Amino acid sequence: MNEATSPSGRPIALSCGEPAGIGPEIAARAWDQLRESCPFVWIGDPDHLPAGTPVQLLETPAGAQRVAGHALPVLPLEFGGDAVPGKPDPRNATGVIRAIEYGVELVRGGQCAALCTAPIHKKALIDGAGFAHPGHTEFLAAIAGRRRVVMMLASPQLRVVPTTIHIALADVPRTLTPALLRETIEITDTALRDQFGIAEPRLAVTGLNPHAGEGGAMGHEEMNWIAPLIAEMEKQGYALTGPHPADTLFHKAARVNYDAAIAMYHDQALIPIKTLDFDRGVNVTLGLPFIRTSPDHGTAFDIAGQGKANPTSLVEALKLAQRMAAVA
């Protein structure tokens, strides 16, 4: 089977993200690189795409495979404002939100194989549409009716999952609980089986403290509950190791021993993957009833419209969504 052609022939749905950011230009460049090898349909206002982009407007995603070789397939939506690079317009907020919702509808309705999302700008969504969610991921969880989802950062070299995410470091010890860690492990294990095709996922769990507490000399969480939880879940059939000192878990020889690493907090997870493979990292949301990926970067207003934006992370996000769809 061609790596980029899913058995169903369904395209990936790509929501436009913030029109004033780099989303439109990297979408056009990703199409130019992938074309029919990884067909996707862009959801947004075609007037927001870079001038000269070959575009084919569609009424449904069904024609994306047919036209992707010579034009970017677009499902057009009306937006309230223009796209001025680097200057988000709150009038576009409703359109940005609708593009995400439409993408979810297409995937859940079976017309698209997976959802890939370009970066959004939360303040513009709040100012223009009263957006009430902490971010993209939480909005998707609310649409899907899921209480909790898990963020994975994935690249060809490493998959890593932070148990706690966008909170202050001082808040991590009280937020990190046995129930939260257990749920994170369970969601990750299920996703690796169902969406990545790994029959027996191997998960390595970090400690919270330096040297994983070093026997209580640098903290007691590892001894008090992290190690006991790992041992309990091993008895239940999970392939777990740890708690590992985070500073020795991510070098090349260590990485061959696990399929994903479960970290305790944001930077413990993201620093290794961004150091190892900055451009090819992909954000994957685990625990949704559909596949969702996104590039691992933001709107980059400072370089928007200047032709400097690197589409590699978006290309990798689209390709990963396609591979996951072929497994699921």
TrEMBL record:
The kind of enzyme this is, by top-level EC class, is: oxidoreductase
Residue spans crossing the bilayer: none
Location comes to:
Cytoplasm
Q: Which Pfam families match?
A: PdxA
Q: Which reaction does it catalyse?
A: 4-(phosphooxy)-L-threonine + NAD(+) = 3-amino-2-oxopropyl phosphate + CO2 + NADH
Listed cofactors: Zn(2+); Mg(2+); Co(2+)
Region forming the signal peptide: none
First-listed, main subcellular location of the protein, grouped into a coarse class: cytoplasm
Q: Which UniProt keywords apply?
A: Cobalt, Cytoplasm, Magnesium, Metal-binding, NAD, NADP, Oxidoreductase, Pyridoxine biosynthesis, Zinc
How many cofactor units bind, and how?
Binds 1 divalent metal cation per subunit. Can use ions such as Zn(2+), Mg(2+) or Co(2+).
Residues holding a divalent metal cation: 166, 211, 266
Known pathway:
Cofactor biosynthesis; pyridoxine 5'-phosphate biosynthesis; pyridoxine 5'-phosphate from D-erythrose 4-phosphate: step 4/5
Quote the function comment for this protein: Catalyzes the NAD(P)-dependent oxidation of 4-(phosphooxy)-L-threonine (HTP) into 2-amino-3-oxo-4-(phosphooxy)butyric acid which spontaneously decarboxylates to form 3-amino-2-oxopropyl phosphate (AHAP).
**What other comment is given for this protein?**
The active site is located at the dimer interface.
Q: Which PANTHER family match?
A: 4-HYDROXYTHREONINE-4-PHOSPHATE DEHYDROGENASE, D-THREONATE 4-PHOSPHATE DEHYDROGENASE
What family is this protein classified in? Belongs to the PdxA family.
Q: Which HAMAP family match?
A: PdxA
Q: What is the protein name given in its UniProt record?
A: 4-hydroxythreonine-4-phosphate dehydrogenase
Organism field: Lutimaribacter marinistellae
Q: Which gene encodes it?
A: pdxA
